[in-house]
Write a structure and sequence with these properties.
By secondary structure, this protein is mostly helical. It has 2 domains: 90 residues, no CATH class; 54 residues, no CATH class. It contains 5 helices and no strands.
């Protein structure tokens, strides 16, 4: 397995755990989950712009040929950030994240199965179903406390 990819995903996972309570605190202070999410995305956008400029502005030539559905990733991200900023103070971080992860894995199984959104089709075997079932069971256990 590519070590750099594993490290990147682990670091991103830490960020996913830190982001909801951070945004929830900003929402409490500012009085709006939507405003907190907007600020979060504005800061993230600024960071990515600086990184892109620092890298010499690579890519971009084929964007006109991207399928229409490829342009809505930011919509999903905005909904995710706002939903977790809203849910975290109400459900707790562990419950919020286990529910989010469980729903992500169910969606991932289905997207993999049908090769949707440009993915290579991957069968849903017993091991994959059992793994997702265990995560869903874990979400239920975490929620019940």
């Amino acid at each position: 397995m590519p070590l750099l990819a594993i490290i990147a995903v682990l670091a991103a996972g830490l960020g996913v755990a830190l982001q909801p309570p951070t945004n929830a605190a900003l929402a409490r202070a500012g009085g709006s989950v939507v405003l907190a999410s907007l600020i979060s995305f504005a800061i993230g956008t600024a960071l990515l712009l600086v990184a892109w400029l620092a890298a010499g502005r690579p890519g971009g030539g084929g964007l006109r040929d991207a399928p229409a559905w490829a342009w809505v990733g930011g919509f999903y991200g905005a909904c995710f950030v706002a939903a977790l900023a809203y849910a975290t103070p109400r459900l707790g971080l562990a419950s919020t994240l286990t529910l989010a992860i469980a729903s992500q894995l169910v969606a991932a199984l289905l997207l993999d199965r049908w090769g949707a959104l440009g993915l290579a089709p991957t069968s849903i075997g017993t091991g994959r179903l059992l793994g997702v079932a265990l995560v869903i069971a874990g979400a239920v256990l975490v929620r019940r406390g």
